[in-house]
Amino acid sequence: MMASQSKATKNAIDDYLAPATLSDALGALEDGEATILAGGTDLMVQTQSGRVGYKQRLVNIRRIDELRGISEHGGRICIGALVTITELLNNTLVAEKVPVLAAMADKFASNQIRNVATVGGNICNASPAGDSIPPFLVLDADVELACLRDGKAATRSVPITEFFTGPGRTVRASNELVTGISFAVPQAGFIARFIKSGPRPALEISAVSMALGGVVENDVFRSVSLSFGSVAPTAMRARKAETFLTGKKLDDETIRAAVETALEEVSPIDDVRASIWYRRHLVGVYLRRLVADVVQG
Amino acid sequence: MSCKVEIKFTLNGRPEKAIVPVDLNLLAMLRDMFDLKGAKYACGEGECGACTVIVDKLSVNSCLTFAVDCDGREVRTVEGLRATDKLHPMQRAFVDHGAIQCGFCMPGMIMQATHLSDTSPGLTRDGLKRGLEGNVCRCTGYTKVLDAVSDAMNTEGVDQ
Ligand SMILES: Cc1cc2nc3c(=O)[nH]c(=O)nc-3n(C[C@H](O)[C@H](O)[C@H](O)COP(=O)(O)OP(=O)(O)OC[C@H]3O[C@@H](n4cnc5c(N)ncnc54)[C@H](O)[C@@H]3O)c2cc1C
Questions:
Q1: Most exposed: A104, A254, A297, B73, by fewest CB within 10 Å?
Q2: Both A81 and A13 in a single domain?
Q3: CB spacing of A112 vs B2 below 8 angstroms
Q4: Co-location of A74 and A156 in the same domain
Q5: B85 interfaces chain A, CB cutoff of 8 Å
Q6: What is the pTM of this model?
Q7: A-side interface with B, Cβ within 8 Å?
C-alpha cells in the first residue's frame, strides 16, 4: 500500500470501531480507509476547522492495552503509542534513564492536554513543531509500525530520521498503525537537554525547539547528537554541526563556529509565530544555551 | 452526517446512555443532550480550559474529547461536584475568596483545581500556577483563584 498522504476523502464518518486488541485494530485498518483516533487533541481541532477530513471509518485505538506502557528489555526502552504526555512526565523509568523526555513533557501544552495527548499522536501528526520529536531524534529512536499482510500481523521499524517526509506527512502507509517508539538505553554519562521557545512555560507552539545530547569527558564532547524543530519542513538532525562539535573542547570559539555550521543546515520560514530572522537568531541563542547546560552536566 | 453510536457511561455518579454522532465532542453532548451548562464553549481548541471536566479521574478539555470515547467511562462535571445540599470544598473556597469575576471561566477552573487537589495534594503555590496554566480567566482575576485553590488545598508558601 502507498504511503498515506491522501487528503481526507469525505467529512461524514460511516463506521466507527473501538477495537480492544491490536489484531482487531489492524483488521479495521486493512483497507486503508480509516482515520485513527488516539487522544484526539490534534484530530478534533483539525477536523472541526475543516483543515483535515475524516476517512469513511473512525478507528478509536484507545481501548488497546498492548499500545500502553513504558518498558525496558534487551537494552532498549519501548514507549507504547498510547502513552500520554502526563505519563512521560511522571514515569520513574523515564526520570531515571531519559530525563530529557520528562523535561520535554513539562513544557508540553497544559495539564488537560497532557492528560490525553499521546506520544503516537504527536509523532503521527508530524508537525515540524511536535515537541517529542527533537528528543526522540537525539535518542536515535525507531518508530514501530504494524499492519496486516496476507491475514498476518507484519511489523517494521523505521528510524525516526526517516519517518517524516514533510509537514503532516510520514512514511506510514494508510493500513499501518504506529505501535510505539523504541531506542537504546543511553550510555553511561550521556546527557541530553531540550529547549523550546515561548514566553510562557506552557501552551506554546514553539517557534524553535532543540535537543542536544552527548557525553562530555575531560571537557571534550563525544557522541554528539543535535536536533531542531520548527526550522525546516520536518524536525531534523543537524549532522554537520554534530560532526563539527564531536571531539572538540567546548570553548567559545567552537560554539561560535558550531552555530554558524548549524545555520547552514536550517531552512526556517516566516509565519505567524516568528520571522526567519528571529528563528535563525534563536538557533544561535539556544545552541549556546544547550551546550552550556550539557557542559555543566 | 456521520453515523451514530450508542454509548453507556457514568455521568456525575449516575449510569447514562446516549446515541451520539461519532464526531460529536463531549462538551456539545453535555450541554445539548444533558442540559449541563456548567462547562462552557469558548475557544473550542483546548487553549482556554473553560470546558474542563473530569473523565476517569483526569481533567480534560471536553471540547477536544470525542463523546464516543466516553463509552464505559466516568464523566464528572461541575454540576456533580456538590454532595446533597453542601458545596464541594473547592466550590466553597471559590465563594469564600470571591474568586468569581464574571463567572464564565470558573466552572472550568473549579474542575481543574479539583483534579489538582485529587491527584497532586502537596502542590506548592508555584505548582498550582503551573497546574492552572490551561485555564484562562477573561477578566484576568487570577489572584483570588489562586488564593481559593491554595486555601482549599492548604498550600504552603507565598506568591513569587
Ligand atoms: C491547546 C493545544 C496545545 C498543544 N500544545 C502542544 C505542545 O505544546 N507541543 C506539541 O508537540 N503538541 C501540542 N499540541 C498538539 C497535540 O496535543 C499533540 O500533537 C498530541 O501529542 C497529539 O496526540 P493525540 O493522542 O491527541 O493525537 P490524535 O489527535 O488522536 O492524532 C493525531 C494524528 O495522528 C494519527 N495517529 C494517532 N495515533 C496514531 C497511531 N498510533 N498510529 C497511526 N496514526 C496515529 C491520527 O490519525 C491523527 O492524524 C497541542 C494541541 C492543543 C489543542
A1: A297
A2: no
A3: no
A4: yes
A5: no
A6: 0.95
A7: 12-16, 18, 37, 40-41, 44-45, 47-48, 54, 58, 60, 62, 86, 109-113, 115-116, 200-203
